[in-house]
Structure formats: structure tokens, C-alpha cells
Amino acid sequence: MKSAVETLNPTRVRLTVEVPFEELKDSLDAAYKKINEQVTVKGFRKGKIPARVIDQRFGRGAVLEEAVNDALPKFYTEAVNEGELNVLGQPEVDIKELKDGELLSFTAEVDIRPVIEIPDYSGIEVTVDAVDVSDEDVDKSVDELRERFASTNPVERAAADGDVVTIDLEAKVDGEVLEDGVASAVQYTIGSGELLDGIDEAVTGLEAGGEATFTSQLKGGTAEGKDAEVSVKVTQVAARELPDLDDEFAQMASEFDTLEELKADSRKRLSSMKQYDQATQAQERVLDELLKLAEVPIPEKLLEDEIKTRKHNLEHHQLGQMGLDLPKYLEIQGKTEEEFDEETKEQAVKGIKTQFILDELVNKEKLNVNQEELTEHLMRRAQSSGMSPDQFAQAVVEGGQVPMLVGEVARGKALAVVVESAKVTDTNGEVVDLEDEETDETDESAETVEASSDETETATEADAKTDAPAADKPADAKNEG
């Protein structure tokens, strides 16, 4: 077999492959065997039909076609390895010549990973938010805990903001009561915004037994999006009572004996959260600066596939779970379809660039992923997916996604290398030493990379999949000898 590589652009090549006919022998034998198992010829036992009879009955062209489709993946892979190519995705194969007994010639166009020069990243400087926990932050945290321990008691007065009212609802559209538009004994906290638009104004000032009518656009149900005339009746008004902020509350709401101990713990917890946010912010900003420094050609087909994948995942998974379609989502976001498409393209470009650069850095720095790092990452991914670690691990193995997880961790380690060499300063002018923070920098970096790349399996995650598809069948793929 002979092969030649023609560079079409920095991210795409054309392979030209010539195969002497004798190298097709194994595939021809396999083709005759396969056809033997599929057809019946009178006078011959199944599987024992001579090759010449198959040629006469079904045509030598059918055998050649089967043999070529069987052989193409092997010869394509050999040509890729011979050319030392790092291919992406599936090739476009075109048979140029097939002469029975003489020669098979084909071309294969395929995207390749571009050659990337890792820039000098030692001079990267970024600014992040300072880790400041104010007394107001602590008070707000304690107040939120206090809200969770609030009690409600019925009162004989008009409903006011913050009260919990028990209400009956009836919604009409065009004068007809909706089948799913009637509800009884619904509890609603005035001012929470968790029900219909306009209900706060309707029930505020009403006592038990009071009624009101208002117009609101329905957010769900059979008449979603339509304006409805809603009748509401208040059957009970209850006031929310918060526990006193004292040591007794601390003992009831936490493991601490005093309110001061509870506040001190809240301050420590808020500080840890802000440190985590600061580290994530540093990683994101360092990554953005690294992307600015590097020249990264983007394969057109890969970018096209990545955009399609992102849009598909949004429309059929994320929005579907929220009961939205794309037009409704764009309306909520206040974006046009053109703006959405441009934003999706920018995100896809950033994700591909991120993977290319960090993968190159992984190779340059010879970074490896050990079992402990992979297990920790798997545990975090399982938690974010809502699955148990065992369920998630099983799904990963069955889906052949272990290399993807390894790639995420390796890229996270590569980003951590860049972050360690960068100068990170907070808004107070203080140098931030991320190594001093009680966080897992590598796993945080993996999370940052994952968010940037969106980690859907694109051709960048299928580098090693070099099997060629069945070739398009040209009109002259017949017996020419």
C-alpha cells in the first residue's frame, strides 16, 4: 500500500491511498463467505457455493463492493498511522479507481488537530474579587437560617406582605373555567413571587372570606401563555413569626451552644465559599488570557458539529426539562435568534480552543492522571448529575466515556500549571496565593475547563476513532477487468 498526504489547510488534509489488488485477498475471501451465508443457490449446500457461481449469479461487482467496504477502515488507519496524523472525526472517503485484479485507489479528507505553539504564559496577570466577609454578610446568613425556623399563626386581620394566606383559585379563559384552572387550599407567601403575576396586589388587604379578581398570563397548563381572569378567595391569613436571635435559637438551629459561635461558624463558612469563588474566578480569567495568547485554527467541520451539539442539548435536554422551547427561551433571555447563534458559536470556539491548548500542554508537561484523581473527579461528577457514584461509574464505563473523564482531569491539571505561574491579585491589591486555600485546585480547574468546553463528546473526544465509514458507491465500482 502507498499513501500520500496533502495539506488542504492547517486543520484538514487529503489522504491519497493506492492498494495493490493482492492486499484485498482477505477482504475478498470475507466477502464471498458473507454472501455465502446470506444467499441460497439450488444444487449447492448453504455456505458451500463456489466463488465463480456467486460471480455469475450475483455479479463480481457486488463482491468487490463488499470487499472494499470491509477493507477501507484498515487501509485508512494504516495511512493515518503512516502519515502520523492526529485526526478528528470521520473522513469523507471517495473511491477513485477500482480495477479488478489490479488496483484500488481512494482519497479520504479528514480534519486534523492543528499544530499549536504553546505561548509563554509566565507573564499572565489577572485581578479577582477580594475575600471580604462583612458583618452584614454574616447577619444575612443567620437571618436566612432564622427564616427556615419561622412559624405561622392564624390572625384576624387583613393580609399584608410576608403573610401566608390560604386561598382558593379559579381561572377562566374567554369566560370558560379551565379544567386545570381550579385549586383549593393553596398556601402562598405574599411577596414571594412564586404564583401568578398580580396575585400579591389582589390578596393584600383582604381578610379571611375576602375575594378578588385579577387578570394574569398563565405560566403553565393547558392554556399556557394566555391571559386568564382569575378569581381568588382568601380562607385564612397567617402571620409568620421568627424566633428570637439568642443562644436558644443557636441551640435549636445548629450544633452550637451560643449565638456568637453560630455567627463565627457562618463567617468561616462564607469565607470558604468566597475563597472557592475566588479560585474559580482566577482560573477562568487565567484561561481567558491564555486563549488570547495562543493562535488556534479551528476545523470548520468540527466547529459546525459542536454548534449543532450544543443547540441540540439545549433544546432537547435542558429546555425540555424546564418545559420551554427555544423561541420561549429567547423571549425570556431577550435575545434574537441571530444573537443566540453568534453566542453559541463563540462558546463553541472557546470550548474547542480550550481543549486543543490544554491537551497540547498536557503532552508538553507530560501530565498523567492517577486513579485517586480520577476517582475524586468521578465522585464530583456523580454528585452534580444526581446519581450515586456506583451508578455514574457504571454509566461512564458502559458508555465508553472513561477517556473523556481522564481528559477532563488532565486538562484541569494543565490549567492548574498555568494558574500557578500567573500573578493573581485581588481588588484590594493583595497577591492571592491559591495554594494556601483549602480547596482542590486540580479538581476546581477540571470544573472550570468542563464549564468552558461544555464537555459534550465532539470529535475532539474521538481522536482515536479512525475507522472509515463504508465508501460512497461510485457508478464505476464494477468489474472493470
UniProtKB/TrEMBL annotation:
Encoding gene, per UniProt annotation: tig
Tell me the InterPro entries matching this sequence. Answer: PPIase_dom_sf (IPR046357), PPIase_FKBP_dom (IPR001179), Trig_fac (IPR005215), Trigger_fac_C (IPR008880), Trigger_fac_C_sf (IPR037041), Trigger_fac_ribosome-bd_bac (IPR008881), Trigger_fac_ribosome-bd_sf (IPR036611), Trigger_fact/SurA_dom_sf (IPR027304)
What are the UniProt keywords, alphabetically?
Cell cycle, Cell division, Chaperone, Cytoplasm, Isomerase, Rotamase
From the UniProt record, list the reaction(s) this protein catalyses.
Answer: [protein]-peptidylproline (omega=180) = [protein]-peptidylproline (omega=0)
Q: Name one Pfam family in it.
A: FKBP_C
Concerning Gene3D superfamilies, the annotation shows: 3.10.50.40, Trigger factor ribosome-binding domain, Trigger factor, C-terminal domain
Is Plastid among the key words of this record?
A: no
Enzyme class, first EC level, given as a word: isomerase
Question: EC number(s) on record?
Answer: 5.2.1.8
Function, as annotated, reads: Involved in protein export. Acts as a chaperone by maintaining the newly synthesized protein in an open conformation. Functions as a peptidyl-prolyl cis-trans isomerase.
Query: Is Cell division a UniProt keyword of this protein?
Result: yes
**Biased-composition ranges for Acidic residues?**
432-460
- Please quote what the entry notes about the protein's domains: Consists of 3 domains; the N-terminus binds the ribosome, the middle domain has PPIase activity, while the C-terminus has intrinsic chaperone activity on its own.
Positions of the UniProt region annotated as Disordered: 428-481
Q: Which GO terms describe its molecular function?
A: peptidyl-prolyl cis-trans isomerase activity
PPIase FKBP-type domain segment(s): 162-215
User: Where in the cell?
Assistant: Cytoplasm
Report what the protein is called: Trigger factor
- What family is reported? Belongs to the FKBP-type PPIase family. Tig subfamily.
Q: Check the UniProt entry and state the signal peptide residues, or none.
A: none
